[in-house]
Design brief:
Two copies of one chain form a homodimer.
Chain A lengths: L1 H26 L2 H7 L4 H7 L3 H25 L5 H18 L3 H11 L2 H10 L43 H13 L7 H17 L1 H7 L4 H23 L12
Chain A binds a DNA duplex (18 and 18 nucleotides) through helix 1 and helix 3.
Chain lengths: ~250, ~250
DNA sequence: GTCTATACGGTGATAGAC
DNA sequence: GTCTATCACCGTATAGAC
């Protein structure tokens, strides 16, 4: 009965997502996933031959979810700079409030295996393929800092690969804003990183921040719900020379 | 020969720190630590009876290192608000540039076992003890509470615990600034979280950000070195009504 | 398709020689 | 104190009955 198949498969994926997000790849136990999906360990292997295969299925979907807000600010060329920022923060905080365990999980697995980022990101956001992942030296430090810049010779063939095509439009809007005097002076890349940081970190650092600010689970969640507005306030204050460009979004 | 003992002990700790930071508690292998310390697995167990004990020794020191910048902005009551911010960002970025793997490691282990935060933070920064950690159900494996804690039961008496004593002075300075009109309106707690986020996240999200911004290891490190100044710029812009309070720090 | 039972490899920890 | 050899356990994966 194929209907049952699909049901079980979805149950397994849901359970696997919970367990992997909670414990990471190494900490997750196939037995635990089987338990949460209400099947036996053997049946679990029947659907997904190995832990690796199951993990990749889950992780592929999770990283897609995590990258959607980024795609949002990239795809639509008609968006104004401020709209891009509002869209990004809004959709990111929304996604993360619904998947609080996502960021730490992604960062954890990406750090322990940076290689898989490229292929997964590539299929989610075409146009990111750049240099191969150099990072990470297995054991001791020693990043072979051989060639700082070897990409500049690529200009001979294809055109603007040096340009960070992913964020190019966004960056250009910031530069235009600075040129016209509407924006303060900022480093566009640093600004983007700050934007991402302020949204994502509160979910990664939750246990620490909860203690520092003495909040229980409910209070911390409320704190995060209110955070979207506050982040927007900060970002616009950082960027725009005239205070409060428009503040008639809510309430 | 006791000199040899201490040498080996330090070698073990250094190796263990590298391996634990790289792979987390669950992913770390005693054999790997032994190899990096150039001793046998049995000798490793001779110095530290169990993986658990070794981990706690390392983690205790690491979380202390991670919390030092926070202590810095708390201890000295004579610091001005702007000085506190400068001190915090400066010392945090400094610590993290020297220990890039620290934040992810801390967050990872704190999330998979929030219980141990309380006791460790307590002994590092007295005055944080608050409500018991409610959050999150550690999966299974992980470290049972070894708890060599018998020191501070004395704190159970004294009162004003409701006040967030840790950050109270900092928060009050922000509130005073707002009252006097020197500061924009901000939620002090959200501001503090943003400050921490902008410093810490770039180290946690390194693999992702490297791809997004198309930077190799060297470029990313330079980017992080420049970041301190940029963060300060942003924070002061968020907080202060008059632009550029003083910008004669460097160059 | 789903289960129980089991094979197999890897890992933390110990025993005992030197 | 340091090593090699070994134990005991746990987790993934498979075999085979139903």
């Amino acid at each position: 009965m194929q209907k049952k198949d699909l049901q079980s498969e979805q149950l397994i994926l849901k359970a696997a997502r919970r367990v992997f997000q909670r414990s990471g790849y190494g900490g997750a136990r196939m037995q635990e996933i089987a338990d949460e999906a209400h099947i036996s360990k053997a049946s679990l292997h029947y659907y997904y031959r190995s832990k690796d295969k199951l993990f990749h299925t889950v992780f592929r979907e999770d990283i897609r979810l995590f990258l959607i807000p980024l795609i949002g600010i990239l795809r639509d060329p008609s968006l104004s700079l401020e709209s891009r920022i509002r869209t990004f923060v809004g959709s990111y905080m929304n996604t993360l409030l619904e998947n609080p365990g996502l960021p730490l999980f992604i960062m954890q697995e990406l750090s322990s295996n940076p290689q898989r980022l490229i292929s997964l990101v590539e299929e989610t956001v075409p146009g990111v393929e750049g240099r191969p992942v150099d990072g990470y030296t297995g054991s001791d430090a020693s990043v072979g800092g051989v060639s700082n810049r070897e990409s500049s010779d690529s200009t001979s063939k294809e055109a603007n690969v040096d340009e960070i095509p992913l964020l190019a439009a966004f960056i250009r809007q910031i530069e235009d804003g600075m040129a016209s005097g509407r924006c303060h002076k900022v480093d566009p890349e640093q600004f983007i990183l700050s934007m991402i940081s302020m949204c994502v970190f509160p979910f990664i650092g939750r246990p620490l921040i909860k203690v520092l600010l003495k909040k229980d689970e409910q209070q911390y969640r409320d704190f995060l719900v209110r955070r979207e507005e506050e982040i927007l306030l900060y970002l616009l204050r950082i960027l725009y020379t005239n205070d409060k460009p428009k503040d008639n979004s809510r309430h």
